[in-house]
Amino acid sequence: MRPAHSTIRPATVRRTAAKVLKQTLAWNDYGRILTTKRLIDLIVLSAALACSLTAVVRRFGFGCSHETARKAVYTNLAEWPELTQQLLNALYQIGAKTLVRREWVIAIDEHRVPFYGRRDTFGVTGGQKKHGTKYAFSYATAVLVHRCVNARRLQRRRRVVIVCC
Asked: Using CA atoms, how far apart are residues 86 and 119, in angstroms rounded to an integer?
């Protein structure tokens, strides 16, 4: 018998994420062109493609400049504690409260992208010299590991930290 495959498509995930974020985030329109729906679509598309707002606006033609899009997002963003609570509420709406009921293994990976500009730029940290510079932007990714076999395999990889919650 054939194994059952997931029928969830990327468009369905993007649509669901946009719907939940629109309900959770208290965002307003920014001018005539950037409505709340377009702003949320911009954020979701940027996250789905793992690229910057500038790249998404230039590539998909949102009808405004990348600077206008940046200002619109910056104007609508809440302070860190409030934004964190809003995003947690969005996760809970999808059904993530079930994740709280048991222990999970999470794989966290740190990424460093070399930076060649001014050292006092926000988000730039120093570190080991690599690709002609010792400065880089740092960000982390986290993945929920479902099986212990995957956890053991991930532990052997360099720069991956296994944390039990």
From this structure: 33
Query: Strand runs (DSSP E) across the chain, as ranges?
Result: 105-114, 124-130, 133-145, 160-164
Neighbours of 37 (CB within 10 A): 12
Q: How far is CA 95 from CA 85, 90, 135, in A?
A: 15, 9, 39
**Domains of the chain, residue spans:** 10-97, 103-164
Give which of 38, 15, 12, 17 is closest to 27, Cα–Cα. Answer: 38
Q: State the DSSP code for 103.
A: -
For the chain, how big is the Rg over CA atoms in Å? 19
Q: pLDDT by residue (tens digit) across 58-98?
A: 888 888 888 999 999 999 988 888 988 888 888 888 876 66
The answer to whether the CB of 25 falls within 8 A of the CB of 18 is: no
- DSSP assignment letter at 127: E
Q: Which residues of 101-135 are buried (b: 16+ CB within 10 A; e: fewer)?
A: eeeebebeeeeeeebeeeeeeeebeeeeeeeeeeb
Q: Judge contact between 90 and 20, C-beta under 8 A.
A: yes
Instruction: Please tell me which residue, 155 or 36, carries the higher pLDDT value.
Output: 36
Q: Is 21 helix (H, G, I), strand (E, B) or coil?
A: helix
In this structure, what are the phi and psi dihedrals at residue 47, rounded to the nearest 5 degrees? -70, -40
- Predicted confidence at residue 52, as pLDDT, reads 86
